[in-house]
Amino acid sequence: MVRFFILISVFLISCASSTSSSFTLLPERKEIEIGQSYIPVAIEEFDGLYTQEEVQNYLSQLGTTLTKHTYRKLPYRFYLVNSEQVNAFALPGGPVFITRGLLLELENESQLASVLGHELGHINARHHARFLEKMVALNILLGIGSALISDKPYGQVLIQFGQIGAQLLALKFSRDQEREADKLGIEFTLKAGYDPNGLIEVFHIFKRLEKNRPPEWLSTHPLPETRIRENTEIINSLSLFKELIKDSEDFQRVKRLVLSTKPSFDEFSKGKKLYKEGRKDLAYRHFLRSVELWEKNYQAMVYISLILLEDGRLNESFEYARKAYAIVPNVFSTNYAMGLVQFRRRDYKDSIKHLEEARRLIPDNPDVYYYLGRNWEALGYRQRALEYYKTAIELSGGTRPWEGDARERLKRL
Ligand SMILES: [Zn+2]
After folding, report:
1. How far apart are the C-alpha atoms of 155 and 396, rounded to whole Å?
2. How far is CA 302 from the centre of its chain?
3. What's the pLDDT score for residue 238?
4. How many angstroms separate the alpha carbon of residue 6 from the centre of ligand 1?
């Protein structure tokens, strides 16, 4: 009997130690690091950063008013991205994004505070972190397999980076998690002095929009009638004794500013759609019009630069890439465009500088590795070129037109 007992305890101890490794609690430092590393990916995915400083500053100020009342002290950041989608989302450990499309649908400051509050709710309840914790357990298993078959762990790490990112940017939360985020969001907005009814108003806006074109937000944040009812009840049960903020002059001014650039972004959207369909001549005209309508639309300039580059119009391409880079030097797309055009202009060193910056921002883009290889090869660094070609091929997985060429060069080197 005693022996049996010992056997069981040994069994329990070994179980405990093996399960504890697969349910790792993601350290906060790591959570922050992961969130930060996907900011440039999110910016590109949502058509770039909105570049009017006044608008970004306003958003940061409003966000900071809310984060004074959050439970977790984190490096919170707030970004307005250019996408016409109606969406808002957060990344682990602090970054919060709202699309231009959503901002233009909002009617007052308390609504915007409610949207930000809700996303801060997800961060504060560690919803992203919990998702990652599940992923890490899975990755331990995957890691064993890939470590055995792969002698290039670096490539594997990059592929995992891409896979995790794709899931983080389309993260669907459960009904319970939404309920929790709503509740925390109401708490933060109220403590910051805003009317929490803004949240209910936003829900009604989404419901109205749904009749024509469902807001993208709804695809990751389900909005059944029960959710509206429950939150209305929560807000009604609160004693809203103090004077609450509904709107501000600042919000309306910022919204007017964003509205004034809408025609430029409408042209940009048309151009992007045509570009994806391969109708680049037509796309080019819309991008030009986009820049005419707003001279700071850097993402349109990036596309113009790439189209001109394909046509072999190097000098004009360079002019547009340079203008775009001057407007926003710290994003992937402007460095990528500069890197490509400088390679064609045979300024290999400058090309490397920009492509390395692009790689630092988004480390799993195969084109960046291919052109880094081409640059190093042109400068006579064969070994380095070889490594970049290898990674480029590994990451592209048969999707890029230069793949045959990269394989030829690998053989030759
Ligand atoms: Zn949510």
Report:
1. 11
2. 19
3. 86
4. 48
CA of 55 to the centre of ligand 1 (A): 24
Please tell me the predicted confidence (pLDDT) of residue 63.
98
> Domain tally for the chain?
2
- 248, 62 in Cβ contact below 8 A? no
- CA pair distance 337, 76, nearest whole angstrom: 29
Give the Å distance between the CA of 300 and the centre of ligand 1: 31
CB 108 within 8 A of CB 255: no
Give every CB contact of residue 29 below 8 A, 6+ residues apart in sequence.
none
CA 139 to chain centre: 22
What spacing in Å lies between the alpha carbon of 263 and ligand 1's midpoint? 30
- The conformational region for residue 194 under phi > 0 = left, psi -120 to 50 = alpha, else beta, is beta
Report CA(118)–ligand 1 centroid distance (Å).
6
On whether the CB atoms of residues 45 and 63 are closer than 8 A, the answer is: no
222 and 170 fall within a common domain: yes
Q: What does residue 329 show for φ and ψ, rounded to 5 degrees?
A: -80, -10
270 within a domain of the structure (yes/no): yes
Residue 371 in contact with residue 355, Cβ under 8 Å? yes
Task: Walk along the chain (413 residues) in steps of 10 and give the mean pLDDT of each run.
Answer: 36 36 68 90 97 96 98 97 96 96 98 98 94 65 38 65 84 91 96 95 91 79 81 87 90 98 98 97 98 98 98 97 98 98 98 96 94 97 94 90 95 90
Distance 59 CA to ligand 1 centre (A): 19
Domain around 396: 261-412
- Measured in degrees and rounded to the nearest 5, phi and psi for residue 272 equal -65, -40
CA distance 199 to 238: 14
Strands 95-99, 88-90: parallel, antiparallel or unpaired by DSSP?
antiparallel
What global pTM score does this model have?
A: 0.89
Q: For residue 244, tell me if it sits in a domain.
A: no
Centre of ligand 1 from the C-alpha of residue 220, in Å? 7
